[in-house]
Every structure is written in structure tokens, then in C-alpha cells.
Fold these 3 entries.
Entry 1:
Amino acid sequence: MSAAAVERSHDRPLIAEADRIMERLPGYRVEIIGDQIIVSPPPDGHHGDVLTDLMAPFMAAGLHGAESRLIQNIGLWLPTGPEDFAIPDVSLVDADFADHYIENNCYDPVCFRMVLEVTSSNFRTDLRTKVGAYAEAKVPVYVIVDRKHERLHVLTEPAGSEYASHRVHAPGETVALPDSLGAKITLDVGEIIRTGRNQGR
């Protein structure tokens, strides 16, 4: 993380420890959610392949342009604890996201339109822990590719520590994401699941 976070280590003990873990374990993702440090191993190749396929329709629809940006691994500052932050696999953010910088390479959730996670071995974090964290941050849309159970989750309407709408889609379905993202995006669940198969179980 940033040198500034290390300089503030006397009043940010969890962030300082997260920085130490990242130094010891290059390639691991380190997040703090609910005052707990969560360490995730590097994902496999199928995880990255799914992400590339998922980003394509957003790019084709013009969502990586003047109004919004599609960014991998951007830090999202969370309201769940004084040092909490998450690093979604992909986020759709307002183009002026840089104006919403908070600290520790993280940005205010107000500029996030959507977060997307592709599960790996730590699938429970994406399916449980992050649901509450992203809802409390009022991220409007949370999409999860659940590779273990071969499902696509679309969560909308954050309310407190949960989403009022949580739809689960199976292969064979085509899913239209909310128009609030800024363009019409449809996802073929079967294609996404096939790309992510074989690993992450």
C-alpha cells in the first residue's frame, strides 16, 4: 500500500499489519472488513479469464469512457470499521473517482456504481462477508460469479447490511443488469460459468 499508510501506523494498527502481510506475501490480496484482516491467495488463470470476458460488454457499451471507468482492484473505503477497506475484482466508478480519494489507495463508496467479484477458494468472503460490507457502503449493484456453485448473483437496493434484491441466476439464463450503470449490459450466465470452470472449487 502507500507509504503514507505506513507513516500513520501508530494510529492505524490494522492497516500497518495489512501492509506488513502484503510485503511478506506478494500477490496476495489483503483487505480489512469488520475490523478483521482478510488474506486471499493469488487467483488461478480461470479467474482472470472470467474477469476479461466480463469486462468486454462493459467496454463495448462505452462504460469505460468520459462518464465512468471500469477498474480492476481499486480500493473501496468501507463504513464497517475505522480502517476497513475492500478491493473488488472489478469496479465501475464515476469518471471523477480521483476526486473521491480518502486514504490508503482507497476511494469513497459514493463514486462506485457497481462492484464485481469472481469467487476463488475463499468464496464465502464474496458470498457473505462482502455482501454486508458493500451494502453498508451503499454500493448500488454487486455482481458475484460463484464458480463453486455455478451461479451468478446480482444484488441491488442496498438497505442497511443487506441488499433488498438478491437474484440468483443459473446457466442457460441471460441477465440484464440495472440501467443505473449507465448502459444496457446483458450477461450470458452459461458462458461465464464455462470460462470459470475447473478451478476455484
Entry 2:
Amino acid sequence: MEERQSMPTWDATQQRVLDAADGLLSQRGVRGLTVAELARRSGLSRPTIYRSWNDADDVVRSALLRRIVSILADLTPPPPGRAGVVDDILRFIGRFRSDAVFARLLEDEPEVFTRYTLQRVGASQRMILAWLTDAVSAAQHDGSARRGDARQISVMLLMIAQSAVLSHGTVADLIDEDAWHSELRAALDGHLRP
């Protein structure tokens, strides 16, 4: 079993770099983003950035992780019962889809979005899985969610949510937003139902 990750923190200097990355990502995405550009935008030197990150790719991953942590911070502690878990997953998805950086990557650079969020289980997904596992465990404890390994159930919930978010644009002509939301709610609830 994997060790649970604690919420990451960034010092003031790192926050400046991540703020610069956020600005660049929301304006024009990942393409051409360099450490030199991050240094100029943050007003810091390249060696200062290299003290915390290996390259621009590492900065992007940290910037995306910080955005995930921010969304999750609004959703803790675990919600009461299965319905609360489903509500919070949908709330997370809504915040994720409306986030300036994630929305831009989804719309304009889906291949980049996939590389940073779906091709491997990174720090962001581990944070989401830890949050989901706590929520599923709480719902199991009150009897509103089915028995089973809470982490395995959470992995499938994450897959359902990721698939729905990534495929949303593809099926937008086939299903309106309200129906998409309703069907996603039914899929998540059905996966958790005892």
C-alpha cells in the first residue's frame, strides 16, 4: 500500500515562480514555457528556480498540483454519506472545469492535459485519491457506501470522473450539460451504492 501524502506547501519564493507559471499557462498554455521565461516573469534568477525544480516541466507539474490542492482544500473534511461524496466529486469537477489553467489545457491542448494528468499517477492524482479514499471510508462507516477496499473504489471513481471530464467536449453535441451532469451523478452514485 502506498504511503499517504501530506498536503504540500511552497515558500514565498516558490509561490512567486508558481504564480508566474499560472499566468503563462492561463494565457498561452505549456508550449514554449521555459525556466528563463519563468525567471523573467517572477523577477527571480534562473539559479533560484533551479534550487526547487529541475526544469520548466517540474514547475508546470507543481503549478498544477497547487491548483488541485486549492480545490481540495475547499472540500475537506470528508462529506457525510454517499450523497455527500457524490456531491463533492461533482463540485470538484465543476471547479476543475472552470479553473482558468485546466480549462485552457482541456480546450486548447488536450494532449498536454493528458500528459500532465492522465499518463501517470503523479502527486496531483495521489492527492485526489487520498481525498477520495477518506470520503469513501467515511461513507462506508455510516453504511451508505458499499463495502470493499476504499482505495480501489476510489481509483475507479477517479477513472469515471477523469473520463467524463476528458470526453465532455467530444459528447457535447450528444448530451446537454444538465443531462451530462445528471448521468455522471448516477454513474458515481451507482459505483458507491451498497
Entry 3:
Amino acid sequence: MAEGHSDQGINNAESSDNVVDGRTVIELAYRPQSADTLVGLRVRERIRRTGLILRGVLLFLSVGNWLVSAVVRGSADVFSTAVLLLIVLLVWGYPRLQAAQVQRLVGWQGEYRAVVSPAGITCRTDHGTLIQKWSVFQGYRETAGHFVLLSRDPSSMCLDVLPKRGLYEAGDLERLRAILDQYTPRV
């Protein structure tokens, strides 16, 4: 089920009392994909709603402007139609562009090895290690193929996406869900 396996992880996981029970540590190994980031961005957008509202207002105003200009002139203007199509394309494509940009930033680091434990989440690549305690997260949301953890940052700019395809064993899914439920709320 996982894309790779690493011997690093359990021995490197830290807990508050330096004792980690093997049943409370879950390891994932995966290569990040643009689709993973897109899922995370969509979850964040649904929770924050401001992006959805702003994009909806922009689309509504653009369509309204196009309709008014078409009614006044009696036919659709080529320029205003092109502008409307550009705005529709930008509204639809912006999250995809963001996901592609994030992929360019993280994709070169290769395989990610994440360890989820009572201490938090430790993510390693060949180029670095990131350790995040549970206090960093405001909560998580589960999707069909991912767990998306949102930061406490008021602007919610940071998010972690744990793809389920990175789990080693089928039983790890339930154990991961239990750890997340214990240390951070569902949002």
C-alpha cells in the first residue's frame, strides 16, 4: 500500500515521556503529488469560506457585467466575452495553479516519511526534517484519500496533507484516525 519503506521513523519519533508505544505510532511513506495539495487547498477553502465567497462574487459580477453589456448593445461584445472567459478560467484554475506551485516547491525533495505519534508529526525527506507538535494544529478533516491537518494560524496558510496511500498496512488507517481524534479535533 505504501510507495516505499524506510527504517527511519519509530526510533526517531519523540513523545513527552520519551516512551513511544508501537501501537500509537503510525508511519507513512509517499511522494507528494499536486492532487494531494489540491485536496488540502479545497478543504481549507471550505472551512474558511472567504475564498469561495470572493471567487463567487467575482464570478457573479463578471457575468452580470457581461449580461448588462450584451443587453445594452443588443449583442455580446467580443472583448467582454473574452474577459468573462478569462475570469472564469482564473476562478476555476487558481487552486490548481497554487497546487502546482506547491508541488514545484516540495516535489524535488523525493519521498516523504511521516511519523504520527503522541508527540505530533515528524516528516523527513533526504533534505530535511520537520517536527510539529499537536498544539500547532486547529484540527483535521478526513477526505476519501487524505487526512488534512489545518494550522492554528489565523490565516490558515499552513496545512499538512497525509495521503492514505502512504500507509503500510490496512489496520494503520484506523490507528491513524484514532491518534488524530485523540490529539486534534475534527473540523
